[in-house]
Amino acid sequence: MNESAGVAPRKRRRPEPTPAQRALGLLVRREHSRKELALKLQARGIAAADAAAAVEKMTQAGWQDDVRFACSLARIRAAAGYGPLHIRAQLGSHGLGVETIAAAFSALAESGEDDWLERARALVQRRFGVQGALALPAQRKAADYLMRRGFNGDCVLAAIRALPDD
User: Fold this and answer.
1) 103 and 130 share one domain
2) 71 within a domain of the structure (yes/no)
3) CATH number of the domain that 44 lies in?
4) For residue 132, what pLDDT is reported?
5) Containing structural domain, residue 32
6) Which residues neighbour 21 within 8 Å (Cβ) at sequence distance 6 or greater?
7) CA-angle at 68, arms to 147 and 21, nearest 5°
């Protein structure tokens, strides 16, 4: 109508998304823990009570599941070369309970992704490019590296002392 007068037509404004719609938008992209989802909603200006209600609604609808989130995060971190101590700490930082964390490690065990010694050895071989035994200074560097990645002391010692010859 007003185009002949040189005035652009007005665009309709979309209605502001509800907290539940925002939560769903976040969950479509990737898994989130309950705690993380609530914090993200609050960071977007949603009141804490409304965020909690939206998270509860997503959980009841099956869109959000802490066990599924924990299994996914544990699998991703293990594949990225992190050890069980790091993974356990990261899952704990998401406000997940002991049972949920145990379920994530059970899922890793069921899928055969929990051979921490083999993972540690592969990290050392990839990082230091060696076959067989390491010299003492390289052993120290490898041990520090594995400890920073979240492997326990027994696993670290076994990985650096007994590298298989290929």
Assistant:
1) no
2) yes
3) 1.10.10.10
4) 64
5) 19-61
6) none
7) 120
> Measured between alpha carbons, how far is 5 from 95 in angstroms, rounded to an integer?
59
pLDDT digits (tens, 9 = 90+) for 55-81: 999 999 999 999 999 999 999 999 999
- Among the listed residues 57, 53, 52, the one whose alpha carbon sits nearest the alpha carbon of residue 38: 52
User: Residue 56, SS3?
Assistant: helix
Given a cut of 90, is residue 105 above it in pLDDT?
A: yes
Predicted pLDDT of residue 166: 43
pTM across the whole model: 0.82
CA-based torsion, 63, 55, 94, 101: positive or negative: negative
Domain count for the chain: 3
CB 45: neighbour CB atoms within 10 A? Answer: 11
Q: List own/partner pairs for 125-133 with CB under 8 A and 24 or more apart.
A: 125/163, 130/163, 131/163, 131/165, 131/166, 132/163, 132/165, 133/161, 133/163
Q: What is the pLDDT of residues 1-32, one digit of tens each?
A: 555 566 777 888 888 899 999 999 999 999 99
Question: What whole-number percentage of the chain has pLDDT above 70?
Answer: 91
84 and 71 share a domain? Answer: yes
Q: Which residue shows structure tokens 């145990």?
A: 102
Distance, first Cα to last Cα, the chain? 78
Q: Rounded to an integer, what distance in angstroms lies between the CA atom of residue 122 and that of residue 1?
A: 69
